[in-house]
Specification:
This protein has 304 residues and is α/β, with parallel strands linked by helices. The chain folds into 2 domains: 3-147 and 182-205, Rossmann fold (3-Layer(aba) Sandwich); 156-180 and 210-250 and 267-297, UDP-galactose 4-epimerase, domain 1, CATH 3.90.25.10. The protein contains 9 helices and 15 strands. The protein has a 7-stranded parallel β-sheet. Strands 7-10 form a two-stranded parallel ribbon. Strands 8-13 form a two-stranded parallel ribbon. Helix 3 (119-134) links the parallel strand 5 and strand 6 (139-142). The longest helix has 16 residues, at 119-134.
Length: 304
């Protein structure tokens, strides 16, 4: 049994991670402000990570899983408050790579501002740098688009809603833009692998080894719902994020380091089926937002 600290613990990735490691038989502490329901069988440390005082000095953690560090100051405030710990793993983001880098993006490439991700990406870079200063042996994971049960971001849920409404789907251009995904359980599995094998490399891109076109992804979601998918290509000069749930930005991560340690990942269709089963019962948790095409909302009011 390990003593594990998970920052957050109440939303999507941090909640899934907390519940996963509880299920593995560990003692899991979650750090949050207690404004949402807590994951089952965890130990709550109710506090803001920027105002911890001395309360952490009495704890020993075998692992710190930092899911909610978005800035350098997030790292500094938590690190300064920690007592004794063994391993530190930061969930960062592929947004740290500039869009101008040669693809696929590899861990050896320089990080920098990305015009699509903006401040989110540069803040993640600062978080990584502050962690490296303080914990040189920390592990940093850079995922692409995460998906799976408990996803409160309106991505696959948006397509499921369109499919359940038996509605035609507005597809960006020819639908050939490619997306790279990673199931949240595979993220947890890879954390397990790191803790077991303690690899010499400290920074890992993580993700599925193959990408999928937007058209394939949408059609897969419709098939899982049990609806026919008629795609309507959108070639007009309309901002893609107005009517679709991803930026007009295609990128791909080199995940060969990850695959050397964990060759298999969950097939996308299987993962999306799990997402749909969860989504049908938990739509109220998802942060739904309206999408528009030519001034009209895409979904009927009852699903939007």
């Amino acid at each position: 049994m390990k003593n594990i600290l998970v920052t957050g613990g109440t939303v999507f990735v941090s909640k899934y991670i907390a519940e996963y490691f509880v299920g593995q038989g560990n003692r899991v502490y979650v750090l949050n402000r207690n404004t949402r329901p807590q994951p089952e069988n965890t130990i709550l440390i109710e506090a803001d990570r920027h105002n911890l005082g001395e309360k952490f000095k009495e704890y020993h953690f075998d692992v710190v899983l930092d899911v909610t560090a978005y800035t350098g100051s997030d790292i500094v405030s938590l690190y300064d408050a920690l007592g004794d710990f063994e391993e530190y793993i930061l969930i960062s983001s592929s947004a740290v790579y500039p869009e101008s880098n040669e693809q696929p993006f590899s861990e050896e490439q320089d990080v920098g501002a990305n015009k699509f991700w903006g401040k989110y990406g540069t803040d993640k870079i600062d978080a990584e740098r502050e962690l490296r200063k303080r914990v040189p042996g920390a592990y940093i994971l850079r995922p692409p688009y995460l998906y799976g049960p408990q996803n409160n971001v309106y991505r696959e849920g948006f397509v499921f809603d369109c499919a359940m409404a038996k509605q035609d789907f507005y597809l960006p251009k020819d639908g050939e833009m490619r997306l790279q995904f990673f199931h949240v359980r595979d993220l947890c599995r890879f954390i397990d692998v790191i803790l077991e094998k303690k690899p010499a490399e400290k920074t890992f891109n993580v993700g599925n080894a193959s990408s999928v076109s937007v058209r394939e992804w949408v059609q897969m979601c419709y098939e899982i719902v049990g609806s026919d998918c008629k795609c309507i290509p959108v070639h007009e000069a309309i901002e893609q994020r107005e009517y679709f749930c991803f930026h007009d930005y295609e990128y791909f991560l080199d995940v060969s380091r990850q695959r050397e340690l964990m060759p298999e990942t969950k097939p996308l269709r299987e993962g999306l089926m799990e997402s749909y089963e969860w989504y049908r019962e938990n739509q109220e948790i998802v942060r739904k937002r309206p999408y528009f095409i030519n001034g009209k909302t895409i979904l009927p009011d009852k699903t939007a």
